[in-house]
Amino acid sequence: MKKQKTEVYNFQSEVKQLLHLMIHSLYSNKEIFLRELISNSSDAIDKLRFKSISSPELYENDSDIKIQISINKAQRTLIISDNGIGMTKQDTIENLGTIAKSGTKSFLQSLEKKHNKQNELIGEFGVGFYSSFIVSEKVSVRTRFAGAKSVEGTLWESSGEGEYKITDIVKKKRGTEITLFLKKEEEEFLEIWRIKNIISKYSDHITVPVYIQNYNETNKTYFWEQINKAKALWTLNKSSITEEEYKDFYKHITNDQNNPLIWSHNRVEGNQEYISLLYVPEKSAWDIWNRDNKHGLKLYVKRVYIMDNSQEFLPNYLRFIRGLIDSSDLPLNISREILQDNCITQNLKKALIKRSLSMLAKLAKDNSEKYQIFWDQFGLVLKEGPAEDNENLSKISNLLRFTSIKSNSSKQELSLKEYIDQMDQKQDKIYYITADSYESAKNSPHLELFKKNNIDVLLLSDRIDEWMMNYLVEFEGKKFQSISKEDLSLNKLTEEKKIKNQELPNEMIDFLKKTKKILGDKVKDVRLTYRLTHTPCVLLSDSNEMTTQMAKLFSAAGQSVPELKYIFEINPNHVLIKKICLIHDEQQFNEWIKLLLDQALLAEKGNLENPHQFISRMNKLLLT
């Protein structure tokens, strides 16, 4: 008989940290360990189903797939076994000895920051197996990969202290068997009623039957009892599914402990046959802005699981949508590469985009409070929509929310429809301003005319806003207009008639001439304006040129930005301008004009190339 060979390995350093947290810190909801292990077993069976389409020999003449749970109170062990795909020796080392996923450090940091929600994060980061050590003093895993030519399997053992053992063993049946040697204080998990309760709570709707070994007192025999429904919820009639069942299924497929805000379950028959079940979460994923963020729908073909995170069915701006699609038209051997160029995929994508946007529109109409929760979590993601999806621009525009002058709050609650309904009769455009922050936008001198005339202006301060407004050209026939750019419609809003140069006082004519000479090519033009009330001067971008905010975006992205030439507008009614007009000292006048330009640049850009020169000039003039 071949002697068994045992090898000892050290855990990856991050796994050690994780195990320490599992063993010593996470006690608020211990039962999640069973949810994670059942979920892993279900995934292993799904992989077997998929791979056996092209390699039926993987079934090894045993297609009766199942998950089994047995209890031994005397030995204080809980055993979870499946006849899924199993693991090779190398798989075992890679999957149970290291965490290859790039998000591990983020996971550990999140655990430290969110002490009250640690257990909610476990499944989200794909480290569910290690939750076994919350209740176990030792864990052993016996596994063999399906279709192996021999019956040689692998035994993995660890007490979670820093190392694990690997032993070559004989395992006749494919799949994985996990034995938990429970801590003495965790004997509640040796009660059949407790296990049934957990399975019912977390795993009722997985498509694999889960059995528990029970004992018949009358016959004095053991028997296997199925304890979950094992029916694909999405295939059931909507009228037979309760609200709680929809919520529980969402939690099962996402590992999210929060309830979804809304969902949409649809069966489509005709040219294309498919079932979709889409959910809108209540909270955004921790890594939603990470480029490696895994998102997308679970894909099934004719009820057979194909893949997770299939991104081909929804655009990037809807990456927060969770759920699944089950198609009857796609081939069972579909790959990600084939999906991308498949016409059926493209048709399904159009239908699912429409369904997702309709679901959000329904939420906005029926429950403004819940929609506000959605917007606060995912508004920035949805703002990517106008640039990505011109075909659905109108629907996306209706879902956008803003703040404005009249809102008097940084909270984005105002829809474009509401803005238009409240528009001034003199107004023929939707006015907005972009800035680095809400406070900066709210206090911009460009707003003075609008405040004076009681005209509302959208205040945009998210980094994505300037980019979004390049694609958001109009809404319901009303064009968007940046109030920091030159536009004739802005002049129509003031009641005062623009005074012609020949009607100006001589000192104001001289003032303009001297100012243009001093500033030269630093500005595109110098002119008077009657749109200001409290500010002496302001800078406008030419209608055909890049805005200040867009220039900042380009610069932040490391791209070269052309030099911006502004139109320098001066308020002739401001007391400071009237005072400067009377200055005859050429050097002092020169300093004042440069100070005015620096002030306007600071207000427009939020910074100056040479702030020390500005301070020095200001101090000098204060002393004169």
Model description:
This is Chaperone protein HtpG. Its main location: cytoplasm. Residues 1-336 are annotated as: A. It is found in: Cytoplasm. By secondary structure, the chain is α+β, with helices and mostly antiparallel strands. The chain has four domains: 6-226, 2-Layer Sandwich (Heat Shock Protein 90), CATH 3.30.565; 233-376, 2-Layer Sandwich (Ribosomal Protein S5, domain 2); 401-492, Rossmann fold; 501-622, Up-down Bundle (Four Helix Bundle (Hemerythrin (Met), subunit A)). The protein is built from 22 helices and 22 strands. The strands form four sheets. A nine-stranded mixed sheet has the order 1-6-5-4-7-3-2-8-9, with helices on one face. The protein has a five-stranded mixed sheet with strand order 10-11-14-12-13, with helices on both faces. The chain has a five-stranded mixed sheet with strand order 15-17-16-19-18. A hairpin with a 4-residue loop joins strand 2 and strand 3 (77-82). The longest helix is centred in the middle third of the chain and has 24 residues, at 343-366. The radius of gyration is 33 Å and the shape is elongated.
List the helices and strands and how they pair.
Layout: E1 6-10, H1 13-24, H2 32-54, E2 67-72, E3 77-82, H3 89-97, H4 104-113, H5 118-122, E4 136-144, E5 152-158, E6 163-170, E7 175-182, H6 192-202, E8 210-216, E9 221-226, H7 243-254, E10 262-268, E11 274-280, E12 297-301, E13 304-310, E14 322-327, H8 336-340, H9 343-366, H10 368-382, H11 385-388, H12 393-399, E15 403-404, H13 416-421, E16 429-434, H14 438-442, H15 448-452, E17 458-460, H16 465-469, E18 474-475, E19 478-482, H17 488-492, H18 506-519, E20 525-528, E21 537-540, H19 548-556, E22 567-570, H20 575-581, H21 586-605, H22 611-622
Parallel strand pairs: 2-8, 12-14, 16-17, 16-19, 20-22
Antiparallel strand pairs: 1-6, 2-3, 3-7, 4-5, 4-7, 5-6, 8-9, 10-11, 11-14, 12-13, 15-17, 18-19, 21-22
